[in-house]
Design goal:
Blueprint: H1 7-11, H2 15-37, H3 43-64, H4 67-71, H5 76-107
Helix pairs in contact: 2-3, 2-5, 3-5
Length: 116
C-alpha cells in the first residue's frame, strides 16, 4: 500500500497502520538506493551521492520508528504530527535518491568528482 501523506487522514489509517506504510516505503527506498549504488564504480562517489538519502532513512528507522519512540504515550494529534514528520523524512530521502539518480543517469557508472 503506497499512500502520500495527505492520503492518510482520508484513508483513516491507525497509527500502527501508518507505521507499517512508512516502514514499507523506507524498505522500498533502501532497495532503490542499493540498486542505484550498484551502478556506480567508485565507492567514494557512490557514498557521497547516496549519503543524504541514506542518512534520512536512518533517521526514520533509528529515531521516528525506533521501538521506544513508538511506545511513548501520544494522543491522536501527537501521533499524526510524529508520523507526518517521519513521512516527510522518507520523502526527503526519495528526493535525495532522485537527485543522485539524475547525476548517475547523466554521467554514467564512471561518474567521478573533479576538484575545482
Amino acid at each position: 500500500m503506497t499512500l502520500e501523506t495527505s492520503d492518510y487522514r482520508a484513508a483513516r489509517l491507525t497509527p500502527n497502520q501508518r507505521v507499517e506504510v512508512i516502514r514499507d516505503r523506507t524498505r522500498d527506498e533502501r532497495a532503490q538506493l542499493l540498486e542505484l549504488g550498484s551502478r556506480v564504480r567508485d565507492p567514494e562517489v557512490r557514498d557521497h551521492l547516496l549519503k543524504p538519502a541514506t542518512a534520512s532513512l536512518d533517521d526514520v528507522e533509528l529515531f521516528f520508528l525506533e521501538r521506544s519512540a513508538l511506545q511513548e504515550p501520544r494522543g491522536p494529534q501527537a501521533w499524526a504530527r510524529w508520523l507526518d514528520q517521519a513521512e516527510a523524512m522518507v520523502q526527503r530521502a526519495a528526493e535525495a535518491r532522485m537527485w543522485a539518480e539524475q547525476i548517475i543517469n547523466k554521467y554514467g557508472a564512471a561518474v567521478r568528482f573533479i576538484a575545482g
